[in-house]
Amino acid sequence: MAHPVRQGQPGLPAKILSMAGALLVAGAAHGADAALARFFDEFAAQWMRGNPNQAIATRYFAGAEQDALERSLTPESSAWRDARAELARRGLEELGGLDAARWNDAERVSADLLRWQLERVVEGRRFEDYGFPFEQNGGVNVRVPNALIVVHPMATQRDAENYVARLGQVGERLDEALADARALAAKGRIPPAFIVRATLAQMRQFAATPVAENPLVTKLPAAQAKLRARAEDIVRGEVLPRWNAVIAFLEALQPRATEDAGLWRFAGGDEAYRYHLKRYTTTALGADEIHAIGLREVARIEAEMDAILKGLGRATGTLNERIDALERELRYPHDDAGRAAIMADIERLMRDAEARLPALFERLPKAPVTARPYPRFREANAAASYTPAAPDGSRAAMFQMPLRPGRMTKYGLRTLVYHETVPGHHLQIALEMENEAQPRFRRARAFGFISAFGEGWALYAEKLADEAGWYEGDPVGRLGELDAQLFRARRLVADTGLHAKHWTREQAIAYGFEVSEVERYVMNPGQACAYMLGELKILELRERVRKALGDKFSLKDFHTLVLDTGTVPLELLERRVEAYIARPASTSQDPRSATKGRSS
After folding, report:
1. DSSP string of 540-553?
2. What value, to the nearest 5°, has the Cα angle with vertex 463 and ends 462 and 464?
3. How far apart are the two ends of the chain, measured CA to CA in Å?
4. What is the tens place of the pLDDT at every residue in 33-69?
5. Banded model confidence at residue 591, pLDDT cuts 50, 70, 90
6. Cβ contact 399:383 at 8 Å
7. Is residue 215 a contact partner of residue 149, using CB atoms and an 8 Å limit?
8. How many CA atoms lie within 13 A of 29 on its CB side?
9. Which of 413, 414, 410, 402 is closest to 326 using CA atoms?
10. Cα angle, residue 137 at apex, residues 121 and 348 outer, rounded to 5°
């Protein structure tokens, strides 16, 4: 189990405070500020207590406290989100009251990271009404089943009992989300008609599954007959009636929905989109700038792909037509044998990639990563995804693959595996979770994921595999890697097109995306822009270090520098790289030295 965090002792007498001050001075002399460390621990613990789903995913506490949380589902109400924003405001005030002059460089990075994340929570509360509680990719209808089916531990009898306790709260969570949805609909804040249709299709499939075969029931081991029977009763008597009430609400909402796709359709939508771009890209780039970067990268990558295709004798037709033909030729059969074959190939690719890592990285993660398909009810809308391991080892990291016909192809599969597992998400996230030098809130990602860093790293990892020769002798695999880069470059164009330039859903599909991708961008504005902008920044910083160090440049050291920095906004990563470059020659070869010493 995870170790418990330290508890604070507010209101200490002056004499004790004076003694504590002396201890803080001693701690600072050794390069650590005890007051800041205590704040990190105590505030993060308070934050995690308010989000049981996150505490369960990270096994954040221990003993009775963790057990109590593992019998709870995080609320889905507007009141809960208000409380989170208020807690973030208080955290910013407390952080601002600490003595920043005492912090070393590493502590300053962690403090600046936390400040950035809390500011986004506070700022973002204004814009949550531009989303909707029920949608096909990240709505309550997806989050709640995922928290139970994928994340909840199931190693012990108590895990199973806690699971059933949480299952009994699903109805309440659906009621909370439905109340919010009704309030938003009353203000005219409703999703596009095509999103309502996609969400209804997904929810109807879930509801049509026989109760005994429902994934909320089959999560429990077959040997747990009594608990399975209780789970069936809950799903039949509590979950499905509420689920069907949501379906009825969405059906009634359909006549009011339009086909307009972007945030521009709402008053204040342009401001909301600026917030999401800043939140996801961690930059000040506007929609027009990002759109232009996307067009530039699309042209560059398409030219490279065209040359490879012509070298393979595929010179006729548009680039999209030639790629589509290749993708179809490499499809697995859409049957049980094909499903088994693609999952076996994913397993083989993951293990081959793991064997190649030591040539590029000093440290490798201890946590294992496994792969499995999405539940059938999510196949039509889900994107391939990564779920981190539980820090206590009770659950391996998980790569989930949607096995719908359009995704069941060998074309691009290698690159997808590299992105989601190693050297992509799993390498970066697992190493961060295992990095004892970082404050615990960072290892647990207590305040969220920063897409520009995490997705930027995963896209960089795809390119790194090509640079390292992993595609040697495999031009079709190399095409898949370039296609993944093209995909992210086109995202810059399509996301900004949808939300700032009045693109229609059909325009985005015609630009080269499957329907589920476009619908994802519609409901998660700005997130798709994080990938390539993050990758471009990492590549820019790598080149900056290479030029500064010349023949002393080490790729392994650069990777250690970036990965040891951990998840941060891009401006903080850039600051860390500049500090590394500025180190005296005697220390600049040690990437960890960028965190040593004190700020001036």
Report:
1. HHHHHHHHHHGGG-
2. 90
3. 40
4. 999 999 999 999 999 999 999 999 999 999 999 999 9
5. low
6. no
7. yes
8. 6
9. 410
10. 110
Q: CA 200, 175, 67, 118 torsion: positive or negative?
A: positive
Would you list the DSSP string of 225-292?
A: HHHHHHHHHHIIIIIHHHHHHHHHHHHHHGGG--S--SGGGSTTHHHHHHHHHHHHH-S---HHHHHH
262 vs 269: CA distance, rounded Å: 8
Tokens for 526, please give them.
Answer: 């700005």
Q: Are 345 and 413 in contact, with CB atoms under 8 Å apart?
A: yes
Model confidence, pTM:
0.88
- CA trace torsion 501, 505, 509, 513 (10° rounding): 80
What does each C-alpha distance from 315 to 312, 320, 326, 480 come to in angstroms?
8, 12, 12, 17
Measured at the CA of 522, the angle between CA 517 and CA 525, to 5 degrees, comes to 105
Contact 493, 298 (CB under 8 A): yes
How far apart CA 267 and CA 261 sit, in angstroms, is: 14
d(CA 106, CA 593): 10
Burial of 370 (0-12, 13-18, 19+ CB in 10 A): middle
The per-residue pLDDT for range 75-90, each reduced to its tens digit, is: 999 999 999 999 999 9
What is the chain's mean pLDDT, rounded? Answer: 92
DSSP state for residue 184 in the 8-state scheme: H
Identify the DSSP state of 475: H
Q: Which two tokens stand for residue 300?
A: 């560059």
